[in-house]
Amino acid sequence: MKTLTVIKNVIVLAVVALAAGGGYLMWQQLTVNETVERLLVENTTLREAITNLTTETQIGYAKVTGQEIRDDVLYTRILFVETDPQDMTQRVLQKEYEIEGDMAHFDALIVKFTEPMVMDGGERAMYLWRRVYGEKMRPEDGFAIQTPFDEPQRYAAIGQKLSLAERDQFWNEIWDLSNDPKKLESQGIHAIFGNVVYKRLRPGLIYVFKINATGGIYPEMVPEL
Predict the structure, then answer these.
(1) Are 176 and 189 within 8 A, CB to CB?
(2) What are the two backbone dihedrals, phi and then psi, of residue 213, each rounded to the nearest 5 degrees?
(3) Helix, strand, coil content of the chain in percent (nearest 5)
(4) How far is CA 214 from CA 8, 118, 130, 135, in A?
(5) What is the Cα 114 distance to its own chain's centre?
(6) Is the peptide bond before 116 cis (omega within 30 degrees of 0)?
(7) 128-140 pLDDT, tens per residue?
(8) What pLDDT score was predicted for residue 18?
(9) Closest CA to 207 of 119, 78, 88
(10) What DSSP designation does 72 have?
(11) Neighbour order of strands in the sheet with 57-70
(12) How far apart are CA 191 and CA 185, in angstroms?
């Protein structure tokens, strides 16, 4: 009898511990979600920074730095540049890649802000460059442009409106939208992931990427001077 009593007590304690642990995790998750929502909705300086995003802007460019055939296969070297939103002549990110072939895909996560996030009643969008890959590569094997969950240098002005802890939380949530695009939809935030622009690249041209207020990315071709 004593043995059975001890076993029953152990089972009861285990159930209570599990329930308590589960309750704590649920409470912790709810607390995080509530904090994020409060940050996005009630932080006036953050909303002002988002509202100050331009409705259409040049966000960078790509150009061919070389093409050569090796073992009967064409390879293209690409210079990819992301520009400063306030000064298009300034570079905030610059990387070089080499792909097989001449068809390059540029993949971005688009985050579109609508009401109630935008204070002037319009729409704004930001983008997070994800990767570059050739037509003979799988997208998941593409070359990373930005490090996931890091704050993009282009949006440093938004980060300046937040404390360090809030900044980390904000960018973690924004990047995480690629896994759950409807996660913050109730707060006026919509993410469109896998927005890919692809072009057949030729030397002598600059491919200028632009984004509009609704999150559409499109390239314009201009001759290289």
Answers:
(1) no
(2) -65, -25
(3) 35, 40, 30
(4) 61, 13, 19, 27
(5) 17
(6) yes
(7) 999 999 999 999 9
(8) 37
(9) 78
(10) T
(11) 91-100, 73-83, 57-70, 205-211, 217-223
(12) 8
Per residue, the 3-state secondary structure of 12-30, as one string, reads HHHHHHHHHHHHHHHHHHH
Nearest partner of 196 among 178, 213, 218, judged by Cα: 218
Q: What tokens does 207 get?
A: 């491919």
Q: Which pair of structure tokens corresponds to residue 109?
A: 């996560």
Q: How far is CA 151 from CA 70, 127, 144, in A?
A: 38, 12, 15
- Beta strand extents in the chain (DSSP E only): 57-70, 73-83, 91-100, 103-113, 124-134, 143-144, 189-200, 205-211, 217-223
Contact 58, 88 (CB under 8 A): yes
pLDDT the model gives residue 93: 93
pTM: 0.76
- Ordered by start, the domain boundaries in the chain are 2-42, 47-223
- Per-residue pLDDT at 20: 42
Residue type, 30: L
Q: Are 206 and 225 in contact (CB under 8 A)?
A: no
